[in-house]
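pinging the channel bc i need a second pair of eyes. not urgent but kinda urgent?? the chain im working w is below, pasted from the shared doc
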Amino acid sequence: MKNLMACDLEVRMFVDSNNLGKRKLLYSGTTKQIYGAGKDTLIMHYPQKLQNDVWRNHSSSMIWKYLSGMGIKNHFIQKLNLREQLIKAAETYPVFAKIYNIVPREMHQRIGIEEGTYFDKPLIEWHFKSKELNDPIVSLEHIKHFNWLEKTQIEEIQYITSRANDILQAYFYCHKMRLGDISLEFGKIDNKIALIDEISPETCNFWSVDVMGQMQKDEVYSVMKNMAKS
């Protein structure tokens, strides 16, 4: 009975989420929309037009809950329905971090290191957030010179990035996937640095444990679906 009630609630909330006209749209991008929800809270909506939209929302929610349980502060509050999450509002930073455990094809094409090479120590790259400029790589000197982050903020973000990477590597390895790289965005919530935005197969690259090679998105989502059942 409890499962039936939960399912009924999910369906009713999903129906309600279709009536988006009554909400205040704060941001509309190609992959997600942000609506006002109340004091210091927002609703992240994954449009139905996206491929794997439902599983993108579910996998992201699953990862956020796991990180929360491991003590990593983030903006996630709860999954509302098939395509939406309730999240905390955050003051965003103009840069994000991308951490690599394995050399992907795009890095091989940039600097010539053989694709599939394992790093002895994970490599962190910084990117300036700009869709128009395709999120260009920037150096720590850029970040300091333009005052995008303070020294203590850089150090804390580097620590959280490394910690989240370690946690998620172990988490996914249990499900036969190696975390190749992951993009992590940060913001300030209650005057503390926290992970924000999205963590899903769209922001990560995975390599198979059993067969050496980068996994396709559909393969990753298939594993995520099995994870949800376990």
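so The domain at 91-229 is CATH 3.30.470.20 (D-amino Acid Aminotransferase; Chain A, domain 1). and Residues 1-15 have pLDDT under 50 and may be disordered. — does that match what u expected or am i reading it wrong
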